[in-house]
């Protein structure tokens, strides 16, 4: 801890700026998990974080922006997958996604999406997180194609939809059951899905580019 | 209880029994769609249906049972698929499911599932509807196997999970966008998914390596 004795001993009521941000983001997630989107207010977040409302408003103009930032702050693991193999990349991606959805914060983004559809008002967080998952898959597939793997441009979007869809249902089914899932089981389930779908992603026996058309 | 001659010209406040049930079920769905699971009370349903609370309790002991019945009453189309062909059965099944999820009542079952996971209290409706979808797929696959189609027993559950998962994501994506989906687009999207996944369901279904499809 390089911030010295005073930082370690400061009173909880007077956090420094970075601490306050961290506490506001944590409080926002906790509020959302407890009360859902309808009960989520900046007032309650400020109270829970032990800061003034104006401190929250200094950084976040409205509750949706705050919710987006707090969820994204806890979902770092979605991207940055690069194992050198398409199969391993896809396993890593889908394992990240299933772990994310099995965590209450990650699951909250699914809940936000569903509530947004029901109330016909999509909060930005939903669109942002979905877009990050889609983009992460796109990066992995494009890199594989650049390595010379025969990625089928016609099927790729639908195969990813099947993969992510199956993972979403797994997270739902898990949540509806009472038993817990070990991380080894999470990895195994994702590996099975990737091995099932991988052949659909590759163009076996595709004629070389110059003989097409 | 004045049934008899006055029944034909009864006031809206005094429906006959079958009418009252229908109105209670409709009111329950409308209440759920408007207020979500947390705001759903038998009190409000009775008021909306124009019946006494005791009339609701005569038939439904608690709010979860009422919610299950009202959702199931509007989701008849899930089962009873039998076209004679596995591909067409799967297209019919998945089209039924996507139509169901694109309808506010069907979508409400997904919302219930997600809220149930978040609140760690799964209502029966969620489990019942998921089970009906799973069973409908099981019936279709078993019938195909009986006709002699080489259904792969190892992949079948996972392929259905991919199919239903992709459909769930489609319903979500649709709900988050502003444009509407025509029924022809719904059928086309489901047909594409089934044609993508069908080879994984058959034991020797994959095209030979040199064929280009």
In words, what does this structure look like?
Two copies of one chain form a homodimer. By secondary structure, chain A is an all-alpha fold. The first copy, chain A, folds into two domains: 8-73, Tetracycline Repressor, domain 2 (Orthogonal Bundle), CATH 1.10.357; 76-204, Tetracycline Repressor, domain 2 (Orthogonal Bundle). In chain A, 69% of the residues lie in helices and 0% in strands. Chain A has ten helices and no strands. The first copy, chain A, has helices spanning 4-9, 17-35, 42-49, 53-59, 63-73, 86-102, 104-119, 124-146, 156-176, 183-201. Chain A is elongated. Chains A and B meet through helix 7, helix 8, helix 9 and helix 10 of A and helix 6, helix 7, helix 8 and helix 9 of B. Chains A, B: Residues 41-60 bind DNA.
Chart the SSEs and their pairings.
The structure is a homodimer of 213-residue chains.
Chain A: H1 4-9, H2 17-35, H3 42-49, H4 53-59, H5 63-73, H6 86-102, H7 104-119, H8 124-146, H9 156-176, H10 183-201
Helix pairs in contact in A: 2-3, 2-5, 3-4, 5-8, 6-7, 6-8, 6-9, 6-10, 7-8, 9-10
Identify the notable features of this structure and list them briefly:
Tetracycline Repressor, domain 2; homodimer; transcription regulation (chains A, B); 2 domains; disordered N terminus; elongated; 213 residues; mainly alpha
Could you give a quick summary of the protein structure above?
Chains A, B: This is Transcriptional regulator, TetR family. Chains A, B: It holds the Pfam family TetR_N. Chain A is an all-alpha fold and 213 residues long.
